[in-house]
């Protein structure tokens, strides 16, 4: 069961106090070690405020005191900083019946902007019937796909979350027309899926922003940039996980080029989908 914000704040305070006590530092020294002043540290430790730090501060606390962000936020009982063991690049194989690490990566990037180019439709915007239909084209088990969809949608509904999604506009046109991989999907389900996307991009805006670019003019492989934490490129049943800051920044610049070349901007996405529904029924 997900923690409420107050519970998360209480756990964070207890664990921050624990780090302070075992560090052997006074409060001024501890504050300096995590890059804040004494006043900011006092606020973080105040039982009246129950204030969570900014993502950058949370990351500095984890790095300075060799603990995981998940442990600080009460998402894990394992305090060890696993990221220290990460290489510059890793291959993550998705074996049959195994969960992927997407949910973990989203939690690690809490408070950072996530940039996402899906391999087909955005996971968090898909209805169950389309996930069922799409399973013939994916090697990831269906129950895991549904779990990831629900998990990502829950993440998108968090106030502090921020996600930008870039998608070729032709992908939505093909869905509306029922051609390509969608030719066997009933028209009623295609319409239901488009209406679902239209509703969610409207409801989740502006924290969730959908950009549509012309796939004939610019190309992108499927990828997700999880803030400055990591980037992931999707290759069939494998994820190429990139942990080097320099390469993460390069992929971020690539994503920004997609945004600059967008033919449909986030505030126009719902209207674009409505036009497809009107044209193709």
Automatic annotation (TrEMBL):
InterPro entries: Cro/C1-type_HTH, Lambda_DNA-bd_dom_sf. PROSITE patterns: HTH_CROC1. GO terms for molecular function: DNA binding. Residues 16-72 form the HTH cro/C1-type domain. CDD domains: HTH_XRE (cd00093). SUPFAM superfamilies: lambda repressor-like DNA-binding domains. This is Helix-turn-helix domain-containing protein.
